Amino acid sequence: MLHYIGKRLLQLIPVLLGMTFIVFMIIRAIPGDPAQVILGQQASEEAIKALRTTLGLDNPWYIQYFDYLKGLVTGDLGQSLRTRTPVVDEVWPYLAATIELSVFAVIIAIIIGINAGIISAWFQNSWFDYLAMIIALIGVSMPIFFLGLLNQWIFAIELDWLPTSGRMNVRDPIESITGFYIIDTLITGQFDQLSTIMRHLILPGTALATIPMAIIARMTRSSMLEVMRSDYVRTARSKGLRMFWVVYKHALKNAIIPVLTIIGLQMGLLLGGAILTETIFAWPGIGRYIYEAINYRDYPVIQSGILIVAFIFVMINLFVDLLYSLVDPRIKYD
Amino acid sequence: MIINKNGGVNLGNKKIMSLAFLMLLLISTVLYGCSGGSEEGSEGNGETGGEGESGEEKVLIFGRGGDSVSLDPITVTDGESFKVTKNIFDTLVNFGEQDTEIEPGLASEYTAAEDGLTYTFTLEEGVTFHDGTDFNAEAVVANFDRWAAGDADQFPYYGSMFGGFGDEEGHVIESVEATGDYEVTIKLKRPMAPFLKNLAMSPFGIASPTAIEEQGDAFGDNPVGTGPFKFVEWNRNDTVRIEKFEDYWVEGEPKLDEVVFRAIPDNSGRLNALLAGEIDLADGINPSDAETIESNDDLQLYERPSMNVGYLGLTTTREPFDDPKVRQAMNHAIDRQAIVDAFFEGRGEVAKNPLPPVISGYNDAIEGYDYDPEKAKALLEEAGLGDGFEMELWAMPVPRPYMPDGQKVAEAIQSDLAEVGITAEIVSYEWATYLEKAANGEADAFLLGWTGDNGDADNFLYVLLDQDNIGSNNYTYYENQELHDILIEAQTEVDEEVRNELYAQAQEIIHEDAPWVPLAHSTPLLAGGSNVVNFKPHPTGSDKLAEVDLE
């Protein structure tokens, strides 16, 4: 097992290296000069030249790339061209904000998605099945920004149940310690604040969860339908086992593997969807951090931001692979 | 995580069960948080923010589209930074409440010598910085010394407004001296007509010399000025919090206890936050939402006086736009009023000059090119293009105050041009690319605009249309020696009337040569809760909130 993990981790190196290279080349292939953007429309030619030199942008690309890699090896993710702050120093609050939101969204997506899928398969062709699958179809095709604004309108303005945007009530702010506000409020024992933080999570969290939830539901349903037709399920039922246990204990265990794979892949899409969600709900996360960096041609932030997101994505998928063997002992990694 | 081979099944089962239990716990927490909170929410966050009750702190939340880059104003060029620093720092002289006339600021009096080379500033006494440092002539000199010792990369606005740094030839400031405890004398190498207007710009806010020394590069994260509010904290991409400076030198100001600038990037999301009472002021209101706001008793709509121009640039080095007749024909062919009505929702003014009307020197005697397709066809005929021609029409990919929807405006222009036989193909690039390619003269005709920095005519006409600025902001590559001479003369002319006369001439020349089709001067819209009083949006885009109050 450990051997397997080690091997997988080693395999990550060329993957991430290749990714840095592709990102590096793409952001330099799109025209637009960071120096020009930083100095604004009224900057003189000389000023722009001088800044390019200071930023090392007039070196050939391969020198810039190797300088960047050299930095990465020593844990230096580069320095933001816009704020002149090392990425390592400023990235954490953004990352924490996105992780908090994504974890919340994933939990919603998994709980509702898997259960809806199971029940749909269990009562195949019932009204619940049709309704759930229609909702799932709408969920998959609904643009996040539309859903987000619609939810803001209904739940924040018309019903006044939830706040429209942001991570906390800015009229009554909390002090950040870890960057995860839920944990912050828990360790400082501010339980009224915890409920405020939770309420701020609901709208962006459900908007972000919608697509993965729908996909998970559909995957679970089809996977379950297949398993429910198999012999051992029939045997279990003929033994007189209650249907609930047949479905949730015996069938689910065999049906869950492809669902896990989908969940792992959805996590990647979730991080992409975070850019839109974070924009509509004014969530100060890493999606917006990278998005703003693209507008400013802030090369180091784009490169390192994407690197961090990619790293998280591959780690999640490694974790999912390991989870297979936990769910299905027939799968072994040696 | 690691499984025992023999007991694998059982162990796995237990784990799944405990995982399920954990999730159940989490859901119930979420649900509890949800239901428990909603009651508080509806009580606490009433429709209009629940502010202004007696004894409560007056906190104003200003929702805006983006975050600041740095709070050290001299190091940045973006409006979102100045919006905040305007309230932390004071400048030697101020702009008027809603115009760009010069008024006293930290300097209670200022005099310019006849020759326009020596300026004497008498400073307010008894002013302190937020860190307790005394404000005096030494502090002012220290600021100017710091700026002059920098370079274009550190202090971009200093270089572009004062012609350079240190010993550079273009640098207009010869010396800045403390000629008394509260008197500063600035000597210039040559007269500079917009000198005082430059000094009133937000980047030239006077910072505490002690804080600059202590903080060094971190000053932008811990700004210290003499302004009505002092800095509290900054959560990047989220909020900047500033609070009342109790010892502010202007009696009775500021009225608010705290101001929070909150970044909400999406325009609709920001309006929703305003409707829900989570913010008190919102900028970047879509013109199409104006009516919703006006018809809502809990809200009020603000118009920011225009200091911008949106235009269609015609690259004069590219055929057929090298022929002034063709450029004039373009001017006649486009129905600007229709564009303003449709895409600015009438919240803008049809432009006839490159200058917006609020700026002194605006030539109102010029008659704009009227919408007349027949005249346009006749002009094309004269230019030997009676059968029309094909061209690329560049549409701005991003909304700007002066161009709310580049794509749609381009489509309107396209159909106007088709009327006179010109076939325009609309193209667009991502924003930074767009600017770069346009600056290289790669566009036939392109939509663009400009927002003024210091409210001076020079900042429009020289910057955008003088031959010196070809390759940077003169995207049309328009060159005219006569115009150049006039603009250079106006830069050093201290007599306001003579100067305005020069600019009037300049606008006539530009009108005749027609390198642009000036389209519109837009009035950016803001909205606020009905409890906000005394908020007066400034044409420069950065608003001083010292007199703003909540009722």
Q: Could you give the topology of this structure?
A:
The complex is a heterodimer of chains A (334) and B (551).
Chain A: H1 2-29, H2 34-39, H3 45-54, H4 61-73, H5 87-122, H6 127-141, H7 144-158, H8 181-187, H9 191-228, H10 231-238, H11 243-280, H12 286-295, H13 299-327
Helix pairs in contact in A: 1-13, 5-6, 5-9, 5-11, 5-12, 6-9, 7-9, 7-11, 8-9, 9-11, 11-12, 11-13, 12-13
Chain B: H1 8-44, E1 59-64, H2 79-88, E2 93-95, E3 102-104, E4 107-112, E5 118-123, H3 137-148, H4 156-162, E6 173-180, E7 183-188, H5 195-199, H6 209-215, E8 229-235, E9 239-244, E10 258-263, H7 267-275, E11 281-285, H8 290-294, E12 299-303, E13 308-314, H9 324-333, H10 336-343, E14 348-350, H11 373-382, E15 390-394, H12 406-419, E16 423-427, H13 431-439, E17 445-451, H14 458-465, H15 481-492, H16 496-513, E18 516-522, E19 525-529, E20 532-533, E21 549-550
Parallel strand pairs in B: 1-10, 1-11, 15-16, 15-17
Antiparallel strand pairs in B: 2-3, 4-5, 5-7, 6-7, 8-9, 9-10, 11-19, 12-19, 13-17, 13-18, 14-18, 20-21
